[in-house]
């Protein structure tokens, strides 16, 4: 049976409620997220198989035909059966083929009409989506501007309060510094007068000391001069005496040396003459022997040279002739090689051109084939993307709505938390002392070397993940200083309170013992009389002391100073 036609497709221009101003499809609720108009979607039946699309296009007419077909009386069925039985097999096949062709033509027409209808619908939906998106962005910007304006006003108020507080602190510091400066100037004037008086006394003392030293120096200088002159005369006399002695010794040595030198020269001359005569005799003997040998060798050399020249004369002439021929042949070979090289170069160029043309032709053919395949693939891809884009747009719209509502909730939570923090800060500000207002940050207990190490470590690039995260919270160092200071004061007050409570418990116990001692009762008479005890400590500590003993003590260490050492 054919299904009834679907309801008309809703569009973004159709308003579900009463008519309103332009952009009524977009919600104006503040501070909540803007409500988005429901995007019209094509019915799932229109995207189904061809049979369902045929049913959509047939509509009421198909329903009426189906109803009319069902309303026929069963009496007519036997006549139709008898008529079909009268037809032959070939006529029945032709009739079925004609029916199938008619149905195919009808289905093609319906598919074309459906495709055109869907294209028109898609264009309208895209236009409506762009228009609604612009309206949503406009109103969303307005909401964001108002939220940002409120945040900026609150920030300005906080900054103005902070500035006033800082100005008050600075004024107090300036007044204290001016008072310290006046006191320091008075102390400086007093110290300067005392210093100048001490300098005058020291100068007078130094002048007296220099006068005494100068007199001592003059006395010692005269004594040294006299001693120097005496020693100088003694040294000159000794020098003259030793000089005369050395001259006498030198003269005696020169006489002895001249005599020994003359004797040595005579011995050397005689020895040299003997050696010279002996060498001349040996040289003459060797010359006589070698002259005959040299003459014989020279004759042999001349004869061998003559024989070699006669034997190689013909070969030398042939060598010169072949040398000339070789030079001519080498020139011809070089010319032929140049010609062959030119021919080979031209052949290579032509082959390269032919190969380039062939590659270009193949490349063009390949590009044409690839473009054809790409166009076909893109056509199929665009068809699938169009269906996916519809589903994705609907899911993105729902996701955007959820995320915007979540973001607004988180922003409200952050704003409430910030307002609570500011209120607490104002309450704490009222409870601060004058000293804490003037000097909110206590001086560091680290030495200069430790502070330099901390600064060096803070300037280094962190390597671990924890150190990198701590770099983002360096601005909270002053906050943690004040927090740690308050924490330490709280712990000290708790400890003092516990001590006072314990002391109070002891005093209560002593008072009770005293009252028991001055009173008369059976219970008191059964115990020791505290009046007979000179110094009696409570035998059992009170519950407050036990509680104080069980209370764990925590060491509070400033995290800003410990983290660089850990890293």
TrEMBL record:
Coiled coil: 214-241, 358-437, 483-513
Listed GO biological process terms: axonemal dynein complex assembly; cilium-dependent cell motility; regulation of cilium movement
Record's GO cellular component terms: axonemal dynein complex
Keywords: Cell projection, Cilium, Coiled coil, Cytoplasm, Cytoskeleton, Flagellum
Domain Dynein regulatory complex protein 1/2 N-terminal: 99-199
Subcellular location: Cytoplasm, Cytoskeleton, Flagellum axoneme; Cytoplasm, Cytoskeleton, Flagellum basal body
Region annotation (Disordered) ranges: 1-84
Highest rank taxon of the organism: Eukaryota
One Pfam family this sequence matches: NYD-SP28
Keyword match Transport: no
Role, per record: Component of the nexin-dynein regulatory complex (N-DRC), a key regulator of ciliary/flagellar motility which maintains the alignment and integrity of the distal axoneme and regulates microtubule sliding in motile axonemes. Plays a critical role in the assembly of N-DRC and also stabilizes the assembly of multiple inner dynein arms and radial spokes. Coassembles with DRC1 to form a central scaffold needed for assembly of the N-DRC and its attachment to the outer doublet microtubules.
Family: Belongs to the DRC2 family.
Protein name: Dynein regulatory complex subunit 2
Organism the protein comes from: Chelydra serpentina
């Amino acid at each position: 049976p054919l299904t009834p036609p679907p309801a008309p497709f809703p569009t973004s221009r159709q308003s579900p409620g009463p008519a309103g101003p332009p952009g009524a499809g977009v919600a104006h609720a503040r501070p909540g997220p803007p409500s988005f108009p429901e995007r019209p979607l094509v019915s799932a039946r229109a995207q189904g198989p061809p049979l369902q699309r045929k049913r959509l296009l047939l509509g009421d007419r198909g329903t009426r035909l189906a109803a009319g077909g069902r309303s026929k009386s069963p009496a007519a069925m036997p006549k139709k059966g008898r008529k079909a039985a009268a037809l032959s097999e070939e006529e029945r096949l032709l009739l079925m083929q004609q029916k199938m062709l008619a149905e195919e033509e009808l289905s093609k027409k319906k598919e074309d009409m459906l495709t055109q209808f869907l294209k028109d619908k898609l264009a309208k939906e895209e236009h409506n989506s762009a228009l609604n998106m612009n309206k949503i962005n406009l109103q969303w910007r307005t909401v964001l501007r108002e939220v940002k304006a409120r945040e900026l006003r609150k920030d300005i108020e906080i900054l103005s309060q902070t500035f006033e507080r800082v100005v008050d602190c600075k004024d107090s510091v300036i007044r204290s510094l001016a008072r310290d400066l006046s006191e320091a100037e008075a102390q400086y004037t007093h110290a300067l007068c005392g210093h100048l008086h001490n300098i005058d006394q020291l100068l007078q003392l130094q002048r007296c000391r220099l006068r005494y030293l100068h007199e001592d120096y003059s006395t010692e200088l005269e004594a040294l001069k006299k001693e120097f002159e005496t020693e100088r005369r003694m040294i000159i006399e000794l020098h003259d005496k030793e000089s005369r002695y050395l001259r006498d010794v030198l003269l005696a040595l020169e006489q002895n040396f001249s005599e020994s030198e003359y004797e040595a020269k005579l011995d050397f001359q005689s020895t040299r003459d003997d050696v010279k005569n002996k060498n001349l005799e040996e040289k003459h003997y060797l010359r006589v022997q070698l002259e005959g040998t040299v003459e014989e060798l020279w004759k042999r050399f001349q004869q061998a040279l003559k024989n070699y020249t006669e034997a190689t004369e013909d070969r030398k002439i042939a060598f010169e002739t072949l040398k000339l021929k070789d030079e001519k042949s080498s020139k011809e070979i070089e010319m032929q090689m140049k010609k062959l090289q030119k021919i080979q170069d031209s052949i290579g160029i032509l082959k390269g051109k032919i190969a380039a043309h062939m590659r270009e032709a193949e490349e063009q053919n390949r590009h044409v084939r690839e473009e054809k395949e790409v166009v076909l693939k893109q056509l199929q891809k665009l068809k699938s993307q169009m269906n996916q884009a519809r589903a994705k747009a609907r899911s993105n719209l729902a996701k955007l709505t959820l995320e915007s509502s979540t973001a607004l909730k988180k922003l409200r939570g952050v704003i409430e938390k910030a307002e609570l923090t500011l209120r607490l800060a104002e309450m704490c500000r009222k409870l601060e002392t004058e000293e804490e207002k003037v000097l909110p940050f206590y001086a560091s207990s680290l030495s200069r070397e430790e502070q330099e190490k901390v600064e060096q470590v803070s300037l280094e690039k962190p390597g671990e993940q924890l150190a990198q995260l701590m770099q983002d919270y360096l601005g909270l160092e002053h906050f943690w200083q004040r927090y740690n200071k308050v924490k330490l004061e709280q712990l000290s007050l708790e400890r003092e309170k516990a001590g006072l409570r314990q002391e109070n418990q002891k005093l209560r116990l002593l008072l009770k013992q005293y009252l028991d001692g001055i009173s008369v009762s059976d219970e008191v008479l059964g115990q020791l009389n505290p009046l007979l005890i000179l110094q009696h400590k409570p035998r059992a500590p009170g519950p407050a002391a036990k509680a104080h003993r069980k209370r764990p003590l925590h060491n509070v260490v400033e995290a800003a100073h410990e983290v660089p050492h850990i890293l």
